[in-house]
Protein backbone atom coordinates (compact mmCIF):
# COMPACT_ATOMS: atom_id res chain seq x y z
CA UNK A 1 0.00 0.00 0.00
CA UNK A 2 1.51 3.31 -1.09
CA UNK A 3 0.41 6.29 0.99
CA UNK A 4 1.31 9.92 0.43
CA UNK A 5 1.09 11.84 3.69
CA UNK A 6 2.19 15.48 3.66
CA UNK A 7 3.41 16.31 7.15
CA UNK A 8 3.60 20.01 6.20
CA UNK A 9 -0.03 20.18 5.09
CA UNK A 10 -2.67 22.10 7.00
CA UNK A 11 -4.97 19.10 6.51
CA UNK A 12 -5.07 16.77 9.52
CA UNK A 13 -3.00 13.60 9.11
CA UNK A 14 -5.93 11.33 9.94
CA UNK A 15 -7.94 12.99 7.14
CA UNK A 16 -5.03 12.53 4.72
CA UNK A 17 -4.82 8.86 5.70
CA UNK A 18 -8.59 8.46 5.30
CA UNK A 19 -8.47 10.11 1.87
CA UNK A 20 -5.57 7.94 0.71
CA UNK A 21 -7.42 4.78 1.71
CA UNK A 22 -10.61 5.92 -0.06
CA UNK A 23 -8.59 6.71 -3.20
CA UNK A 24 -6.99 3.27 -2.95
CA UNK A 25 -10.44 1.69 -2.85
CA UNK A 26 -11.65 3.83 -5.75
CA UNK A 27 -8.67 2.84 -7.92
CA UNK A 28 -8.99 -0.84 -6.92
CA UNK A 29 -5.55 -0.93 -5.26
CA UNK A 30 -7.50 -1.81 -2.12
CA UNK A 31 -10.42 -4.16 -2.66
CA UNK A 32 -13.52 -5.09 -0.76
CA UNK A 33 -12.63 -7.81 1.73
CA UNK A 34 -9.00 -6.67 2.04
CA UNK A 35 -7.75 -6.24 5.57
CA UNK A 36 -5.97 -2.97 6.26
CA UNK A 37 -2.76 -3.10 8.27
CA UNK A 38 -3.25 -3.13 12.03
CA UNK A 39 -3.27 0.25 13.75
CA UNK A 40 0.24 -0.43 15.04
CA UNK A 41 1.55 -1.57 11.63
CA UNK A 42 0.02 1.42 9.82
CA UNK A 43 1.39 3.84 12.42
CA UNK A 44 4.90 2.40 12.00
CA UNK A 45 4.62 2.31 8.18
CA UNK A 46 3.48 5.92 7.89
CA UNK A 47 5.47 7.18 10.88
CA UNK A 48 2.54 8.56 12.84
CA UNK A 49 0.89 8.04 16.22
CA UNK A 50 -1.36 4.99 16.64
CA UNK A 51 -4.18 7.24 17.88
CA UNK A 52 -4.08 9.08 14.53
CA UNK A 53 -4.48 5.80 12.62
CA UNK A 54 -7.24 4.71 14.99
CA UNK A 55 -9.10 7.97 14.32
CA UNK A 56 -8.77 7.53 10.54
CA UNK A 57 -10.05 3.94 10.77
CA UNK A 58 -12.96 5.08 12.98
CA UNK A 59 -13.95 7.74 10.46
CA UNK A 60 -13.75 5.20 7.63
CA UNK A 61 -16.02 2.91 9.65
CA UNK A 62 -18.52 5.70 10.33
CA UNK A 63 -18.57 6.56 6.62
CA UNK A 64 -19.19 2.94 5.59
CA UNK A 65 -15.83 2.11 3.98
CA UNK A 66 -14.58 -0.43 6.51
CA UNK A 67 -15.90 -2.70 9.22
CA UNK A 68 -13.87 -3.19 12.37
CA UNK A 69 -13.53 -6.82 13.37
CA UNK A 70 -11.92 -7.80 16.69
CA UNK A 71 -10.03 -10.69 15.08
CA UNK A 72 -9.26 -9.31 11.61
CA UNK A 73 -8.98 -5.57 12.31
CA UNK A 74 -10.17 -3.06 9.71
CA UNK A 75 -11.68 -4.85 6.71
CA UNK A 76 -12.77 -2.99 3.58
CA UNK A 77 -16.52 -3.44 3.41
CA UNK A 78 -18.42 -0.92 1.35
CA UNK A 79 -21.75 -0.07 2.92
CA UNK A 80 -23.37 1.64 -0.04
CA UNK A 81 -26.24 4.01 0.63
CA UNK A 82 -26.41 5.81 -2.71
CA UNK A 83 -28.91 8.46 -1.60
CA UNK A 84 -26.73 9.45 1.35
CA UNK A 85 -23.59 9.28 -0.79
CA UNK A 86 -25.15 11.58 -3.40
CA UNK A 87 -26.14 14.10 -0.71
CA UNK A 88 -22.63 14.09 0.77
CA UNK A 89 -21.14 14.51 -2.70
CA UNK A 90 -23.50 17.40 -3.44
CA UNK A 91 -22.55 19.14 -0.20
CA UNK A 92 -18.84 18.75 -0.92
CA UNK A 93 -19.23 19.92 -4.50
CA UNK A 94 -21.19 23.02 -3.48
CA UNK A 95 -18.16 24.65 -1.90
CA UNK A 96 -15.68 23.38 -4.49
CA UNK A 97 -17.79 24.68 -7.38
CA UNK A 98 -18.38 28.02 -5.64
CA UNK A 99 -14.59 28.42 -5.31
CA UNK A 100 -14.15 27.54 -8.98
CA UNK A 101 -16.77 30.07 -10.05
CA UNK A 102 -15.05 32.75 -7.96
CA UNK A 103 -11.84 31.95 -9.87
CA UNK A 104 -13.56 32.15 -13.28
CA UNK A 105 -13.46 28.43 -14.05
CA UNK A 106 -16.07 27.70 -16.70
CA UNK A 107 -18.75 25.02 -16.64
CA UNK A 108 -17.06 23.19 -19.52
CA UNK A 109 -13.70 23.28 -17.70
CA UNK A 110 -15.38 21.83 -14.60
CA UNK A 111 -17.04 19.07 -16.66
CA UNK A 112 -13.75 18.25 -18.37
CA UNK A 113 -11.94 18.10 -15.02
CA UNK A 114 -14.65 15.95 -13.42
CA UNK A 115 -14.58 13.53 -16.36
CA UNK A 116 -10.80 13.28 -16.20
CA UNK A 117 -10.78 12.63 -12.44
CA UNK A 118 -13.74 10.23 -12.62
CA UNK A 119 -11.96 8.18 -15.28
CA UNK A 120 -8.99 7.65 -12.95
CA UNK A 121 -11.29 6.09 -10.35
CA UNK A 122 -13.48 3.77 -12.39
CA UNK A 123 -12.46 0.42 -11.03
CA UNK A 124 -13.59 -1.87 -13.80
CA UNK A 125 -17.01 -1.81 -12.20
CA UNK A 126 -19.77 -1.61 -14.83
CA UNK A 127 -21.76 0.61 -12.46
CA UNK A 128 -18.83 3.04 -12.43
CA UNK A 129 -18.67 3.29 -16.21
CA UNK A 130 -20.31 6.62 -16.09
CA UNK A 131 -23.20 7.17 -18.41
CA UNK A 132 -26.01 6.57 -15.89
CA UNK A 133 -28.38 9.42 -15.34
Automatic annotation (TrEMBL):
Entry protein name: Transcriptional regulator, GntR family
Coiled-coil residues: none
InterPro entries linked to this entry: Tscrpt_reg_HTH_GntR, WH-like_DNA-bd_sf, WH_DNA-bd_sf
Keyword DNA-binding assigned: yes
Cited PANTHER family: GNTR-FAMILY TRANSCRIPTIONAL REGULATOR (PTHR38445:SF12), HTH-TYPE TRANSCRIPTIONAL REPRESSOR YTRA (PTHR38445)
Keyword Ribosomal protein: no
Pfam families in alphabetical order: GntR
Amino acid sequence: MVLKIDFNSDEAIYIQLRNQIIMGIATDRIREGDTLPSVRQMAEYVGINMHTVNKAYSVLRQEGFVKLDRRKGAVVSLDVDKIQAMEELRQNLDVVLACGICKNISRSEVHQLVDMIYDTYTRGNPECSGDEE
